[in-house]
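Ops channel
N.P.: pipeline sanity check, posting one input/output pair.
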């Protein structure tokens, strides 16, 4: 569905929309963490939108780079993703030990930085797909 939207509406707009949905979903986790009827669909929405960010990032990289640059950019994404896979659970566990609600709000701060960065680069018209 995200790929279809990106084809119809443009990758840049859907990329930003995924960021906004991820931010709202993450903020809502802190509010509904004790409500099992709401938390599971919310986590599904969060996973879909966050996965869309990753998928569309690869799409934007493919649109911007070719050849060896594409290989290097993709390797950079793989390294950053791997680093996040190591550091993320450690940081998440530490934050949950502090307070169960601190993790979603910390993630929200990172996602907010992502959205501001996307808006900044869209304003500069850096990406060919925006």
């Amino acid at each position: 569905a995200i790929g279809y939207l990106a084809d119809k509406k443009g990758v840049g707009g859907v990329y930003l929309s995924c960021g906004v949905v991820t931010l709202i979903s993450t903020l809502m986790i802190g509010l509904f963490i004790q409500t099992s009827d709401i938390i599971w669909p919310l986590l599904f929405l969060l996973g879909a939108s966050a996965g869309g960010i990753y998928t569309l990032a690869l799409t934007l990289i493919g649109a911007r780079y070719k050849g060896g640059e594409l290989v290097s950019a993709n390797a950079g994404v793989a390294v950053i993703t791997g680093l996040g896979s190591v550091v993320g659970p450690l940081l998440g566990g530490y934050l949950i030990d502090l307070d169960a609600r601190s993790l979603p709000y910390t993630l929200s701060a990172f996602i907010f930085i992502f959205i501001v960065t996307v808006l900044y680069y869209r304003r500069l018209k850096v990406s060919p797909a925006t």
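N.P.: looks fine end to end. The two ends are 19 Å apart (CA to CA).
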